[in-house]
Every structure is written in C-alpha cells, then in structure tokens.
Amino acid sequence: MSIKFEKVNHIYGLNTPFEFQALKDVDLEIIPGKITAIVGHTGSGKSTLIQHLNALLQPHSGAITIDEFVITKEKPKVSLKPLRKKVGMVFQFPEYQLFEETIEKDICFGPKNFGVSDEDALLIARKTIKDVGLDESYLSRSPFDLSGGQKRRVAIAGILASQPEILVLDEPTAGLDPQGAIEMMQLFARLNRQGVTIILVTHNMDHVLEYCDQVVVMNEGQVERHCAVRDLFNDHSYLHTLNIEMPIISKFINDINNCGYHLDGAIKTSDELIKALKEQLNG
Asked: What are the extents of the domains in the chain?
C-alpha cells in the first residue's frame, strides 16, 4: 500500500484578501501498517494535510497517491466512493458526521452506502457500537442527545462500520475522560494489529509515545520532521522547540538524566522505567 504526498500545496481563500497557504510543497511517505501521529502547534497544517487523504480537500498543486488512487487538481472528482471506503475519516468535531435520526441509522449509513444489505449492516452496527465502548441500547437513541465524548465514540463507530484499510483521526480522544481515552487508543492499537493503517492528529504526546510507531512534525505548512517515535523522544533539545506538552515519563526521564543517569528517552511505560532504573542502580 502506498500513501505518498509529492510537492503538495493547498491555499485557502485563493485570490482573495484572506488567502492563506496551509500546505507548502509537502513531500511525505507514510508507512503502511503502522500508527503514525501528526503533531505540531495549532495552525501548522495538520488537519489540512489529513483531509487530502480521501479528497475532502484537493491540492492546488502536487499529487497524493494512495494505492491506485492519484489525487491532483487536474483530476475530476470521480470514483471517490472506492477511495473513501479505503480511507475512513473521523473529524475533530464529531457532530459534523452525525446526521441520522438514530445512532443505528447513522452507523448503518456507511455500510449500506457501500452495498451491504440492511440485515448485515445492522449486525455490523451492533458489533461496532460495542467496539467503541457503548452497548446496544444506544442504537435506538438520537445521536444529538449524547455527550461530546459519546458523540465521538458514535462517529468512530460509523467509520469503523465501513471497515476502512486506513483510519484517519483528528484529535480522536478529545472530549473523552482519561479512561475513555485509553480505551479508544487501545481500540486503535488493536485495529492496527489487525492490519489497519492508523493516522492520527493529536496534541497528546503521552499517546504518541505509548501507541505510535512514526511521527510527523508539521510546522508552518511543511513537514519539519518525519521519524520513528523513539528517535523523536530521544532528541530532548528538539522536543523543547515544539511548544507541545511533553509526556510525563519523558519529563521525568529528562530530569533524572540531568542528575547523571543515562536512561532511554523513548521509554514508554512506568514498568519499563522502573526496570531501567534498577539496571542502572545495580550496574
């Protein structure tokens, strides 16, 4: 599977007084089968970047290639249904995706749109509502009577119901309590182990450290850095320039390394940290 950006530019408000170039000659190749985080400060181009993955936005120049699909300004908007089945998108604000009278109808919409029978779509809805941590009683409820966190879960269920090969998420744990956020990230990790490529925009660097394989740092519409998560968190001087809240463990490791220890900055869990400390103390 190929996921590649080549010299991609995108301009909002082209030829108006409000013209703003959100993406600038972006070259990026996302590794299939991995969990990739897109990070950067507000306005760096993260959401604009991911909306090109299923042609919600089209580049003003350059090309995006996803397997056999090539998205350019010159190509007309035809045959997008196969692309949008392959690439599922969950927006930052889940209410943008919820429009049916009931949650059941909302989750069934995608599968039925892609040719699944009513009966099979209902079976899928019953499964995916449980996958996102809600029970079947929610299926008869209106999506507009839910809390923000519940809406996010339902929006994710609606995308999962179409069984995408690539799942793109914009701040997927926003509005969730800490336990709910952990459950969602564990769901994405489980989907990834089943072969789904996960691409997520996030400000939560704890999630990046614990769950992601690769990280793309956006800055002023450009890819400033693309590397393994381990390499990012081992580069303390660069981390300080990002102006993003660092993981708790990374802060602690940095503090104790300043006291003479030499711990791996990419340690992900407290158990790994305790083990590494014991090894250095006993060594």
From this structure: 32-56+80-230
